[in-house]
Every structure is written in C-alpha cells, then in structure tokens.
Amino acid sequence: MACVLIVKTGDAYPEVVDQYGDFETLFEKQLSTALPAHLEVQVWDAQRNPTPPALDTLAGILITGSHSMVSDAEPWSEALKDRKSTRLNSSHRPDLV
How many CB atoms lie within 10 A of CB 12? Predict the structure, then answer.
C-alpha cells in the first residue's frame, strides 16, 4: 500500500505534547481524515533512525518542523538534506508537501 511519509525532524515542547501531542501526531490527526482510503500515513523519525523507508512506497512526503537550527549542521539534518536532494533528482519522486 502506498503511503504519505511524515518525516519527523524534532520533538514539540513537553507542554505542547501534553496538550496536543507531538508534531507527527498533529499531522496524523489531520491526514487520517483527509487522505484517500488507499493511502496510509507512516512516520519516519529522521533524528533517531538513519535509514529512511523505500522511496518507491511513497505517494508523498511531509516534513515536520524542528527546533534545531539548520546552521548547526547536525548529522541527521545533513543526511536528510542529502536524501532530499537525491530524491528530487530521482525518476520516482513522491510529492513534497
């Protein structure tokens, strides 16, 4: 089954998580009612898991916000930047949301 991938790039502040859920939860709630039945939502935590899902299973990609600074050039952020560039130049490109 094709999926929309939520790329989690950080955690919401604890008080936000307590009241509303973490970043990916906010997106999952909205997408669960908005997506066609043949699409599922999958979350990939880019900070904690260096291996992304296979590109050919993705119908779209949504990248969450992060409290990290791009200028800090954290390893997970640099790897995500490289993967994003590769995928944009791929023959199979999911939609970037």
Answer: 20
pLDDT band at 66 (very low <50, low <70, confident <90, very high): confident
**Cα 9 vs. chain centroid, distance in angstroms?**
7
Tell how far CA 10 is from the center of its chain. 10
Output 90 or 29, whichever has higher pLDDT.
29
Q: What is the β-pairing status of strands 3-8 and 58-63?
A: parallel
Provide the CB-side half-sphere exposure for 17 (13 A, CA). 7
Contact indicator for 2, 58 with CB cutoff of 8 Å = yes
Tokens 């989690």, residue located: 8
What is the three-class DSSP state of 63? strand
